[in-house]
Design brief:
332 residues; mainly alpha; 3-stranded mixed beta sheet; DUF2059 domain-containing protein; 19 helices
């Protein structure tokens, strides 16, 4: 679904300029075209030329085909180009060329209360998608080489203000799962020792690196930084069963961040059976004047009623009132 949306947005910028020359089809028209048996031989021959890197011959061959069939073939070939192990300069130039073209055939279909028009075969968007990921792939190799040579300066390499920052960021993110422990430790040291990383605009790399290294230092920094979707997802991943002792430690630590407190407490309340260190932590949370009542409600709703009832006998003041209010939610 995400890939579909990206392709739709890539195409959208040029949709208006090509609207006057576009030919609109129905979904049935496209289905009938794709079911045509005679097209199979054309697709197979085009694939053979593409796989053997005979791009000039391919262009000549496609020029002799009906335009709708040509657009279908180009879409198929663009998707096959995602095998980066077979990327060549000729393939890259081919993709660049078709990425700048405007698909002629559009398909109009009805959704739930609306009509949508998009390319019948969005080969240009597919080509842009592949080229984008090919650039990330190359940047990933560059970053790993610099890291291995102890020459990687993250803040400088990422260039926060550059329009290419998302590509450089994604290159590091994609590299992390492939790295050996020694390389991960080296990247962690590079991150923590680079004081300019305090200006990084998001937590994408920090969250990914923390999840793969399980580093307490990285998680501590993550919880102290301004919350975004990356840090929230990292916290949520810690609550996925089976929950480890280290994950519990980090969920408790995450409550230092006001934006993450509610999520962290909820995830801790969902643990069954609840370890003693979590119970001790929750007692402190129950005593909080600002959100102790919410914690009690979470605990009650997550099946910890017996434990809360037992605590009523040993607590007083704010803690006792919060527990009572939490238990009341079960009777409402």
């Amino acid at each position: 679904m995400k890939r579909f949306l990206v392709l739709f947005l890539l195409f959208g910028l040029g949709a208006y300029s090509g609207a006057l020359r576009a030919i609109t089809l129905t979904p049935n028209d496209v289905a009938a075209h794709m079911a045509e048996p005679s097209h199979v031989a054309v697709v197979l021959h085009a694939r053979q030329l593409f796989e053997s890197n005979q791009l000039d011959a391919l262009n000549t061959y496609l020029a002799t085909q009906p335009e709708l069939l040509r657009e279908e073939v180009l879409t198929i070939l663009a998707r096959r180009a995602f095998d980066f192990s077979r990327m060549t300069a000729e393939r890259e130039a081919f993709l660049e060329t078709i990425s700048e073209q405007q698909p002629k055939y559009m398909v109009r279909s009805q959704g739930d209360g609306f009509w949508a028009t998009m390319p019948a075969f969005n080969y240009a968007g597919e080509a842009k998608w592949v080229l984008n990921h090919w650039q990330i792939h190359q940047l990933q190799a560059e970053a790993l080489q610099l890291l291995a040579a102890d020459q990687l300066s993250l803040a400088s390499w990422l260039e926060f203000s550059s329009p290419d920052y998302p590509l450089h960021r994604q290159a590091i993110i994609d590299a992390i799962p492939t790295m050996l422990p020694a390389a991960l430790n080296k990247l962690e040291a590079v991150y923590l020792n680079d004081k300019n990383m305090v200006w990084v605009p998001d937590n994408a790399i920090l969250a990914t690196l923390g999840e793969h290294t399980k580093s307490a230092a990285l998680y501590e920094l993550l919880w102290l930084r301004r919350t975004d979707g990356y840090s929230l997802k990292a916290l949520q991943n810690l609550g996925v069963s089976p929950v480890t002792p280290d994950a519990i430690t980090q969920m408790m630590a995450a409550t230092i961040n006001p934006v993450l407190t509610d999520t962290a407490n909820r995830q801790l309340a969902e643990i069954h059976p609840m370890p003693e260190n979590v119970k001790a932590f929750m007692v402190k949370q129950l005593a909080n004047r600002n959100y102790g009542k919410d914690v009690a409600t979470m605990l009650a709703q997550q099946g910890h009623k017996t434990w809360l009832t037992e605590m009523l006998q040993t607590t007083s003041g704010v803690t006792q009132r919060n527990i009572e209010k939490g238990l009341e939610t079960l009777t409402q």
